[in-house]
Amino acid sequence: MLVMAFVLFTSMTIFAQFSTDLETGFVQTQYNDVRLPGETGSPISLKDDLKGSPDFFYRIRCNYQINDKHLISVLYAPLSLQYSGKINRDVYYGGELFEANSEINARYMFNSYRLTYRYMKVNNDRWKFGYGLTIKVRDAIIELKSEDKVAGLANVGPVPIINFYLSYSVSGPFTLVLDGDAL
Predict the structure, then answer these.
(1) Which DSSP symbol is given to 74?
(2) Could you give the CA distance from residue 162 to residue 108 in angstroms, rounded to a whole number?
(3) Are 137 and 111 in contact (CB under 8 A)?
(4) What is the pTM (predicted TM-score) of this model?
(5) Are the C-beta atoms of 91 and 72 separated by less than 8 Å?
């Protein structure tokens, strides 16, 4: 009986695989116009009205390949940018009046957390195609601060997204990959 159990357990193929991806670089604002509330707040440009510097960002993804058909993935992608300066006009933002030429500090934060399940429909040496579902939780705020005022609107909530993966092995070590989340 012990020999039978040993043979059963040793003949099973275990495929599960864990991997981690790290992405990093610098981010700089090219366009970021805000208004709060959307109809009556003062429009301001975080890029043009205030000054910010390029900042470091990173994203980390942990993947668990259950077998050749099923993948579970978790992504952590924090992003926070700081701006400061004086605006030469009154700014009404988030129910507060920031007077002209007062020192304003702004924070743009858009953190993203994602949990993905993907099913690989095609998985051979040349082609791989999979699809699934991602649940993204966004944690976002655009906040203005002066010496005596703070205004902003936090937005935390889940967003369902379609996940897709397509790759084609061109030759040798070269593979074309299209991988993403979209709605």
Answers:
(1) E
(2) 26
(3) no
(4) 0.81
(5) no
Strands 96-98 and 91-93: antiparallel
* pLDDT by position in tens, the chain (length 183): 443 334 444 444 455 699 999 999 999 999 999 999 988 999 999 999 999 989 999 999 999 999 999 999 999 999 999 999 999 999 999 999 999 999 999 999 999 999 999 999 999 999 999 999 999 999 999 999 999 999 999 999 999 999 999 999 998 889 999 999 998
Query: Are the C-beta atoms of 25 and 78 separated by less than 8 Å?
Result: no
Alpha-carbon gap, residue 142 to 40, rounded angstroms: 16
Contact call for residues 108 and 86 (beta carbons, < 8 A)? no
Strands in 11-54 per DSSP E: 17-27, 33-34, 44-45, 51-52
With CA atoms as reference, report the closest residue to 176 among 116, 126, 133, 121.
126
Beta bridge partners of 21: 61
